[in-house]
Amino acid sequence: MEDRRNTGSVTKRLYDDDAYIKEFRAGVIGCSPAGDKAFGIELDMTAFFPEGGGQKSDTGRIGDAVITDVQEKDGHILHISDRPLDTGTEYDCAIDFAKRYDRMQNHSAEHLLCGIIHNMTGYDNVGFHLSDDETILDINGPVSKEMLKEAEEKANKVIYENVPITAVFLSGDELKGIDYRSKLDITENVRIVTIEEYDKCACCAPHVRSTGEIGIIRIIDAMPHRGGVRITILAGERAYRDYVYLDEANRQYMAWLSTKRLEGAKGVEQIINKNRALSEDNVRLKKELTSIVLDDLKKKLENKNDDRPVPVFSANFDDVMMRNLINEGLKMTDAAIMGFIGDDESGYKYIIGAKEDKGILYKGEYTDLPGFAKIMNGALNGRGGGSRMMIQGSLKAVRNDIEEFFI
Ligand SMILES: [Zn+2]
Fold first, then answer.
1. Ligand 1: distance of its center to the CA of 182 in Å?
2. CATH code where residue 360 lies
3. If you measure from the C-alpha of residue 236 to the centroid of ligand 1, how many angstroms do you get, rounded to a whole number?
4. The pTM is what?
5. 359 and 341 part of one domain
6. What is the DSSP string of 59-77?
7. Residue ending a domain, choose from 33, 68, 95
8. In what side-by-side order are the strands of the sheet with 199-202?
9. Tens-place pLDDT, residues 183-229
């Protein structure tokens, strides 16, 4: 059979025939500068897959040179190297196969799932991105959650069937007779990757030999995208690692929740219900506490016949409770009302309210609240401020010192 591969390219692409070549020996046919301390190495043959079709390039070594990237430009495959290599010399080459194999598993998974979705809906994959931690594919029509679930289940069944995956280059005439998925308009010498019975797709990338090697496919996200759907999948060893991570996390949750392996949701539901009940209790208790303290304050204010400020200390009030209390109290008096929340050990938050036109009576004189805040902060190691009606802040002082400050 005529070899129709490598059209327009001087480098024989070993990965077209065999995606499992990890090491090979090749001759350097070109070496040119490619940026800062980088060189573009051309080989007579290569197993390095150059970046293309949504998949990143392989990495590895040519001799002692580290190859960090492989780019194809005008039919030339440039291996981006950290050092120059001698043209005309042969080198032992090795690709980082663990990384490559992970991509093969995920790329083949993408073909399988897209082929199944295409057969179910007629929609095509119009976008593909395969990075080191996720595989994203865009389908050009809406696919329901139920359909995606069905497609995922079907794809996993095809994995169990261990169906062969093959790649061949076909001429224009040969292509006329077959139905295949393609993102490009090329009609000659197209590499067709076939998953027997399930999919035919034009693709230049290396794939696993059979669906069994994909291991597992899981759709981990699906969201509307440009009238279609954007799907994120995990397959192969990545999916296994993800499972290990989730299972270990689940063990921790089980220990915290004291639940059986698959009953974590029930445990979480119980906690949510308990939390809701506690929140309701909390609201009720706060109301009760506020009314007790307010009754006490009202009694003090009823018997009051001067404008000296009234202190209220509490370890359990929150800011809202204290502000409400102060506003209620101010309806009954012209004196400022001073709320202190906290204890001697951690200090006190203060919220002080006063009539805007009066301010606070301190050492026999009326002072506006912002001015008073400065005096108090200075005397009691505090910070904070506010308006003429209310100031708020904190003091690093004990109750005794605070009380003495006002005498
Ligand atoms: Zn592909």
1. 9
2. 3.10.310.40
3. 16
4. 0.78
5. yes
6. -EEETTEEEEEEEEETTEE
7. 95
8. 165-170, 190-195, 199-202
9. 777 778 899 999 999 999 999 999 999 999 999 999 999 999 999 99
